[in-house]
Design brief:
Largest sheet: none
Shape: globular
Strand content: under 5%
Number of strands: 0
Number of domains: 2
Order of helices and strands: HHHHHHHH
C-alpha cells in the first residue's frame, strides 16, 4: 500500500479536531484516532496503530498526547510530532482556560450539570466500544497466549484489584520474554534446515 504524503496542516488539524471533540479522557480518543489515521487517511496500518496505543498507555503521561507524538513522528518526523502534540494539547488548554474564568457560573448552572451527566453516559459507551474493539483485534489474531494474557489481566484488575501499573509492566515483561523465546526457537529451527 502506497502512502499519500500528508501535509502538516492535515496532521495538525486532524489532531486538533480529534482532541476538541473528545470528552472523557484518553481512551475515548483511541477509536477516533484509529478511524482517522487508519481507516480514513490510511497513513498507518491497524496493527501498527494498536502497537502505538500499547506503548502510549504504558508510557508516562496522557495516552492521547503520547499517541499523538508517535503518530506525528511516524507520519512527518520531528516536526510532525510537534504539530500533532500541539494540535492535541491546544483544545483542552483553551477549554480549561475558559472554564476557569467562569468556574462558579458553570458549577452552579443546572443545565451544564445535566449536560455533563449526559456526557458521562456517552463517554462510558465509547470506552466500552474501545474495549470491545481492542479485545476483538487480539481475538482475531487467534494467538492463544495473547488471549489468555488479556483475560488474566482483566481478572487481575477487576476482581483482584491489582494495580494497573503492575499489570502493564508484567504484561510487557511477559511479551518481551515470549518474543525472545520465539526468536530463539525460530533461530534454532532455521539452523536445523
Amino acid at each position: 500500500m502506497r502512502k499519500k504524503l500528508p501535509t502538516y496542516w492535515t496532521l495538525f488539524s486532524s489532531a486538533f479536531l480529534l482532541s476538541a471533540f473528545t470528552f472523557g479522557g484518553g481512551y475515548v480518543i483511541v477509536p477516533l484516532m484509529k478511524k482517522k489515521y487508519v481507516n480514513q487517511l490510511k497513513w498507518i496500518e491497524e496493527e501498527e496503530m494498536l502497537n502505538m496505543i500499547a506503548i502510549a498507555q504504558s508510557s508516562p503521561g496522557p495516552i492521547a498526547v503520547n499517541t499523538a507524538i508517535m503518530v506525528g513522528y511516524k507520519i512527518a518526523g520531528v516536526l510532525g510530532a510537534a504539530l500533532s502534540t500541539i494540535g492535541t494539547v491546544l483544545p483542552p488548554l483553551i477549554i480549561l482556560t475558559v472554564v476557569s474564568f467562569f468556574y462558579q457560573e458553570f458549577r452552579d448552572n443546572m443545565y451544564i450539570s445535566a449536560m455533563l451527566k449526559g456526557m458521562q453516559a456517552g463517554v462510558s459507551a465509547v470506552i466500552v466500544d474501545v474495549v470491545i474493539g481492542l479485545s476483538g483485534n487480539v481475538i482475531k489474531k487467534k494467538e492463544i497466549f495473547s488471549i489468555i494474557m488479556m483475560i488474566t489481566a482483566f481478572i487481575a484488575v477487576f476482581f483482584f484489584k491489582v494495580n494497573v501499573i503492575i499489570v502493564i509492566l508484567a504484561s510487557g515483561l511477559i511479551g518481551m520474554l515470549m518474543f525472545l523465546y520465539r526468536t530463539r526457537k525460530g533461530g534454532m529451527n532455521h539452523d536445523l534446515h
